[in-house]
Amino acid sequence: MKPDLHAEVNKNSAFLDRELSQLMFNRRVLAQAEDKSIPLLERLRYLCIASSNLDEFFEVRVASLLAAGAGDGALSSHPALVATLSRISNECHALVTDQYELLNTQILPEMAAHGIHLVRHNERNDAQRSWVKEYFDTEVRPLLTPIGLDPAHPFPQVVNKSLNFIVQLGGKDAFGRGTAIAIVKAPRVLPRVIRLPDHLSKSGGMSFCLLSSVIHAHISDLFAGREVIGYSQFRVTRDSDLWVDEDEVKNLRQALKGELVGRQFGASVRLEVAMNCPPELSQFLLDQFGLHQSRLYAVNGPVNLVRLNEIMDHVHNPELRFPPFFPGQAYKPGNQDIFAALRENDILLHHPYQSFQTVIDFIRSAAFDPAVVAIKQTIYRTGMNSDLMESLIIAARAGKEVTVIVELKARFDEEANINWADKLEQAGAQVVYGVVGLKTHAKVALVIRREEGKLRYYAHLGTGNYHPTTTKFYTDFGLLTCHPGMSQEVNEVFIHLTSLTKPHRLTHLWLAPFALQNEIIKAIRNEARIARAGRPGRIIVKINALVDESVIRALYAASKDGVKIDLIVRGACTLKPGVPGLSENIKVRSVIGRFLEHSRIYYFRNDLAHDTYLASADWMSRNLFRRIEVAFPILDKALKRRVMAEGLTPYLKDNMNAWELEADGHYQRRKARSKQVHFSAQQHLMETLGTPNAHLGE
Questions:
Q1: At residue 204, does pLDDT exceed 80?
Q2: How far apart are CA 601 and CA 646, in angstroms?
Q3: I need a surface site. Which of 136, 230, 294, 675 has the fewest CB within 10 A?
Q4: Residues 365-376, buried b or exposed e (16+ Cβ, 10 A)?
Q5: pLDDT score recorded for residue 658
Q6: Residue 479, strand partner residues
Q7: pLDDT at residue 152, as a whole number
Q8: Is the backbone of residue 673 left (phi > 0), alpha (psi -120 to 50) or beta?
Q9: Mean pLDDT of all residues in the chain?
Q10: 229-251 burial: b if 16+ Cβ within 10 Å, else e
């Protein structure tokens, strides 16, 4: 990245550029792929993650900027937007170049040294070429439908991020016409990474080839009697945000089902071609997709790096992966059921270091417990296969009152959520789709039991999704409690979401969009008041993103009053730390490690009251004003100490995976000084909370 990229746009601003900050996060992910201390296949995985992140950046962020520019005239009439898109383009091109340089000069050669070969056509021996030819003839060619372009065969619809080929032909077609361009779509049912038989690999190793390479090698076979003058693989990235007018549609679920099909053909935002693609072909594609030359990415390798993940499904060499990690158990049933345990003490869960199974068991126990009369739960992401959803279905079929608030517009999880909504309704559950215009992002569940003639409430509140897969590699906190005040307020939130009435005044929970932003700013200002009075003011926050200007301004003001502020922000951060007269008491760091940092923690010292909140919300305007979010306090003093000891202090000590943000928007990796003990927060937590005697490592 150019050293002056941030400075050039932000030298007179109190805020950093959001899009560039998001791309800097991707730089930090790519740095993991470059780190030779990390096992080789994990480095490949980080490279794939960086590529996937960039895909989503184009599908969402770049797409939204382009849509904003197109909304009221030509893009050229928005010079500030054009300048922003130009800066984004420069950095994205640099990122893509670095990704493929890393792949070709480090990752693939080191994989080959370990007997894992990705063989291109010109690298295959005669036996390998013969096998690939047979594979093409028997498995690939029958599924291909080459389309020669003419007035009767216009340019075909190209699915978002799909693999395609453009071919330039010489000579005449079968009807004596000089059709010059053909398009070939790669079948989506075929694997993108193909393993060759072991006898065709070097002794003890394994060899792979890409579907794109197989088609490239035999593309002339598709055009008998024609000369293939030039060709290239290509992939187009499209706007993938779903939009429906929620005020107009009568059935949001049915409307979204229709939109899911259209998502594959949203507005084009990026074109990727092979580096050796003839210029006239890439220009032809740009014209077809209505893209500017700056949206073209000519890459030195496969147009979709994410597909290289498939190699890891075949390679089982433990030396090339992180050592296995086995989560600890925060709650062991023994002779006591979970409800009896909660009547004695709250249970704090820290995933993935502690098993998510406790949450699954909580809902499953409720489904089968005859004393349970009702279960309520929000669903943002849960995946296609979910024990939690199956338990809710069982509970509904058993006649319990089951209410599920399903967020149908959880980006890229819409289809799974629609499917679960259908199944839950069929089982007799009451399914609600949240509030029109607002995403329900809160992570809360409630179980109501009849005990000794009275109703008792048991709640789970979390910082992450009810998704059993992501809980294995996202860091998140969850709280199980039957605290009367807090659990009854959880019920008030559900009543608010289903009835659409104004929520009652909440004493414990901070609910967005009604109170969360105001409570955060009030807590920040309280620390500033304490500091002005000469007492220590202290704020520590761990979130995924910080871009809301109202909160940032409050932090700037608190810094001027002497409050010491540490912000642990994994992704985009538009606050400028360490600026004299503005933010000299603020430090910002980002931790990138084996697990994805996802927990949200707000800590305010408050004259030794140590106010500690866990939340579903980052400090972004969308979370504070356009989503249903819940922040909840940790009331038990011992659990407060745990949140500090596990969720904050280790991350402030980390000198292996931490990056510190500078005022100009760049990040510097923090390194242990000479004679200083190397400390990784994630490694520390695995060793502290994981199952004893398991093989641990990062």
A1: no
A2: 11
A3: 675
A4: bbbebeebebbb
A5: 97
A6: 348, 461
A7: 65
A8: beta
A9: 90
A10: eebbbbbbbbbbbbeeebeeeee
Q: How many CA atoms lie within 13 A of 466 on its CB side?
A: 33
pLDDT of the residue at 512: 94
Q: Where are the beta strands (DSSP E) in 149-260?
A: 164-170, 181-185, 193-195, 206-210, 227-238
For β-strands 596-597 and 474-481, DSSP reports them as parallel
Please indicate if the annotation marks 304 as binding a ligand: no
Q: What is the DSSP string of 448-507?
A: EEEETTEEEEEEEEESS-S-TTGGGTEEEEEEEE--HHHHHHHHHHHHHHHH-PPPPPPS
Closest CA to 366 of 482, 469, 471: 482
693 has pLDDT over 70: no
Quote the CA–CA distance of 591 and 698 in Å, as a whole number.
Answer: 13
Query: Residue 335, Cα to own-chain centre: how many angstroms?
Result: 39
Residue type, 311: I
What pLDDT does 406 receive? 84
Count, residues in the chain? 698
CB 512 within 8 A of CB 628: yes
- Residue 621 CB contacts under 8 Å (≥ 6 apart), including other chains: 547, 548, 549
The torsion region of residue 396 among left (phi > 0), alpha (psi -120 to 50) and beta comes to alpha
Phi and psi at residue 627, to the nearest 5°: -140, 155
Which tokens in the block code for residue 143? Answer: 């599924």
Determine the longest span between alpha carbons in the chain, in angstroms.
90
* pLDDT per residue as tens digits for the range 364-414: 999 999 999 999 999 887 777 789 999 999 999 999 999 999 887 655 566
**Paired tokens of 41:** 């296949």
CB neighbours of 209 closer than 8 A, spacing ≥ 6? Answer: 118, 119, 120, 124, 128, 132, 193, 194, 196
Q: Has 474 been labeled as part of a binding site?
A: yes
The strand pairing partners of 402, in sequence order, are 375
Asked whether the predicted pLDDT for residue 453 surpasses 50, the reply is yes
Cα–Cα nearest to 165, from 101, 225, 112, 236: 236
CB 482 within 8 A of CB 343: yes
- Interval 192-201 mean pLDDT: 94
Q: How far apart are CA 141 and CA 530, in angstroms?
A: 73
- Structure tokens, 230: 């030039």
Tokens of 560: 């001027």
* Cβ–Cβ < 8 Å for 634, 348: yes
Cα gap 142→243, rounded to integer Å: 37
Rounded Cα distance, 608 and 38, in Å = 40
The residues annotated as belonging to the active site are: 441
E strands, 507-563, are 510-512, 538-543
- C-alpha 515: how far from its chain's center? 27
- Confirm whether residue 598 is marked as ligand binding: yes
The average pLDDT across 542-560 equals: 98
| H or E segment and range at residue 109 | helix 108-113
Task: Judge contact between 557 and 434, C-beta under 8 A.
Answer: no
Report yes or no: 190 and 210 within 8 Å, Cβ to Cβ.
no
Do the Cβ atoms of 173 and 179 come closer than 8 Å?
A: yes
Using CA atoms, how far apart are residues 569 and 547, in angstroms rounded to an integer? 10
Residues 111 and 39: beta-carbon distance below 8 Å: no
Provide, for the chain, the percentages of residues in helix, strand and coil under a 3-state DSSP scheme, each rounded to the nearest 5.
40, 20, 35
**6 annotated ligand binder:** no
Helix, strand or coil, per DSSP, at residue 293: helix
pTM, full prediction:
0.91
What is the number of other CB atoms lying within 10 angstroms of the CB of residue 500? 11
Q: What mean pLDDT comes out for the span 285-305? A: 95
Whether omega before 650 lies within 30 degrees of 0, making that bond cis, reads no
Answer yes or no: is 570 a known binding residue.
Answer: yes
